[in-house]
Amino acid sequence: MRIDIISAVPELLESPLAHSIVGRAIKKGLVEIEVHNLRKYGLGPRKNIDDYSYGGDAGMVLMVEPVFKMIEELRSQREYDEVIYMSPDGELLTQAVSNELSLKENIIILCGHYKGIDHRIREHLVTREISVGDYVVSGGEIPAALLSDSIVRLIPGALTDETSALSDSFQDGLLSAPVYTRPVEFNGWKVPDVLLSGNPKLIRAWQDEQALERTRRLRPHLLDE
Q: How far apart are CA 176 and CA 96, in angstroms?
């Protein structure tokens, strides 16, 4: 799999993509992630990539020409399944979305910045828009890192134990059950006896019950869905 990320501030993506599960997946050759500096196609001697918006609204807007040229260059090298724009008004990122995207071969992730991007990019170049929540951050870089991480960890071989992802929250539409590790007792706080029973059937029943209870209490809308 290959992920190409287009950014006005590529430095923001260096650390999140270089370590932990994503970094190891890259080193294993399971995924290629390339971050592209949009200023490569900036205009004029100062490599400008943004301008004032028509209509007089406050804030700078990423211009259509640098983004078009960057995407055109990438598309000349390979075919892409999706060109994704990280946007607060896109479809909400869910586990189902990450599962679907993990099966793609090549995707582009476009990071907005400042006030956003010229809407013509969204109309003619973007194939999908994804939001990480109903709030606004300074740019699309952190959301792009979140999306990339949620995708990469699902690629076979990215996790040491591939079955681990199957028990993640939301994978089956529910929150996950509580988890514990050693010691059995700390400060008077004990691990539930059922987890020490060695009985897989009882443990699984307890985990299912806990997952349902936590979902009902913390994310009841998931049960409606």
A: 15
Contacting residues for 47 by C-beta, under 8 A, at least 6 apart: 39, 40
Q: Distance between CA 82 and CA 126 in Å, rounded?
A: 8
What average pLDDT does this structure show over 207-212? Answer: 95
Residue 62: how many other CB atoms lie within 10 Å: 24
Going from N- to C-terminal start, the domains of the chain cover 2-152, 169-224
Assigned fold of 2-152: Alpha/beta knot (3.40.1280)
Residue ranges of alpha helices (H) inside 78-219 are 95-101, 119-124, 141-152, 200-218
Identity of the amino acid at 14: E
- Contacts of 221 by beta carbon, 8 Å cutoff, 6+ apart: none
Cα(156)–Cα(225) distance, rounded to whole angstroms? 28
- pTM of the predicted model as reported, rounded to 2 decimal places: 0.89
Number of other CB atoms surrounding residue 184 within 10 Å: 12
DSSP 175: P
pLDDT bucket at 46, cuts 50 / 70 / 90: very high
The CATH number of domain 169-224 is 1.10.1270.20: yes
